[in-house]
Amino acid sequence: MKITCPRCKRRIRLKKSRNMLCKCGYEFRYTEYFGNKKIYLVDANVIIYAMEKKNITGKICKKVLSRSDIATTERVLKEVQCEINISLKVFRVKKISDELKELKANTLKQPSEADLSLIQAAMDHPEINGIITYDRDFKNIATSGIIQTKSSKYSAKFWVGNAKEFLEKYGPKR
Question: What are 45-54's pLDDT values in tens digits?
Answer without folding.
Answer: 999 998 887 7
